[in-house]
């Protein structure tokens, strides 16, 4: 569970990063969840966008993907959301969270 300080830190780190996934009318599927999980393992912090054609809201999509990838929703703003998951591989860890 992230603290408010950690969320603020992650929001700041996520500002400059590009959106790497878009969820559209196909919604959430297994290949998407697998790709998001792999991206989280490498990057730890990713930004996603929910297109207008998506059958679900950004918040619903963020919550479902976070649950399926065992990650945390950092923030949902409009159609974009940020996910964080600490890398399981100690050598790949890039982000040190504040206490």
What would you report as the Rg, rounded to the nearest angstrom? 13 Å
Shape: globular
Distance between the termini: 12 Å
Largest sheet, strands/sense/barrel = 4 strands, mixed
Helix and strand arrangement:
Elements: H1 4-14, E1 19-23, H2 30-43, E2 45-50, H3 58-69, E3 72-77, E4 80-84
Parallel strand pairs: 1-2
Antiparallel strand pairs: 2-4, 3-4
What features would you describe in this structure?
- This protein is an alpha+beta fold.
- The chain contains three helices and four strands, in the order H-E-H-E-H-E-E.
- It has a four-stranded mixed beta sheet, sandwiched between helices.
- The longest helix is centred in the middle third of the chain and has 14 residues.
- The protein starts with a helix and ends in a 15-residue tail after the last strand.
């Amino acid at each position: 569970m992230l603290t408010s300080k950690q969320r603020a830190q992650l929001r700041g780190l996520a500002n400059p990063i590009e959106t790497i996934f878009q969820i559209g009318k196909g919604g959430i599927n297994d290949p998407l969840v697998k790709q998001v999980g792999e991206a989280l393992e490498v990057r730890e912090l990713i930004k996603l966008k929910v297109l207008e054609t998506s059958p679900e809201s950004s918040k619903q999509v963020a919550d479902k993907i976070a649950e399926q990838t065992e990650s945390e929703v950092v923030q949902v703003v409009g159609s974009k959301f940020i996910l964080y998951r600490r890398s399981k591989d100690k050598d790949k860890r890039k982000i040190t969270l504040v206490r």
